[in-house]
Amino acid sequence: MAKSQRTKKSKTTALKGAEYLINMSSYRQILYHLVFRTKDSRKTIVSEHSKELYAYMMGFIKNKNCFLYQINGVEDHVHILSDLHPSIALADFMRDIKTSSSIWLKQSGKFPEFEGWSDGYAALTYGWKDKDIIINYIKNQQEHHKIESFEVELKKILEEYGIVVNEKYFP
After folding, report:
1. Is domain 31-169 annotated with CATH 3.30.9.10?
2. 141 with 79: CB under 8 angstroms?
3. pTM recorded for the entire structure
């Protein structure tokens, strides 16, 4: 093969490769189990209005081009199972959902004791095959917390994933 033919062939291959990359779509399947609590773990999320809070958070998540699989909680914390759009950093997502929902909670007038969210959060990733297990776990928060406190629950979850628990954050 002559040099000019080899050069032409490699340019065509490179061009086809570039076309493939241009036409390639982005795919993701990263499930995040997000958990965050109220400031000082105060029981300030009034249960009779909690569905309104979750609906607000659902809209926030949808507006970020993420998909919500489940949301629920009790008076002192919230659990979310969601994916995150690849353009969103986890820390930014958590900062924004906590800030936005905190403003909404205070302005709604339905959560008069709410002062804010705690500084931190837990974010754990799960495989697709675990999705239904985590959805059911989140759905059953009210029943679960009749038996176990949030602190015990969170410590167990963190230890299950090999995360060293810092006791200064647990009263």
Report:
1. no
2. yes
3. 0.82
Residue whose pair of structure tokens reads 């200064």 in the numeric block: 168
Residue 89: burial class (beta carbons within 10 Å; 0-12, 13-18, 19+): exposed
**What does the alpha-carbon distance between residue 90 and residue 85 come to, in Å, rounded to a whole number?**
10
Task: Find the largest Cα–Cα distance for the chain.
Answer: 81
Residue 27 has what pLDDT?
Answer: 74
CA 37 to chain centre: 13
Please name the residues in contact with 13: beta carbons below 8 A apart, sequence gap of 6 or more.
none
CB 69 within 8 A of CB 121: no
For residue 40, what is the DSSP state? G
Return the sign of the alpha-carbon dihedral for residues 113, 114, 120, 123. Answer: positive
What amino acid occupies position 21?
L
pLDDT digits (tens, 9 = 90+) for 121-130: 999 999 999 9
- CA distances 140 to 116, 133, 145, 164, Å, are 24, 11, 9, 26
> Which structure tokens are listed for 1?
């093969």
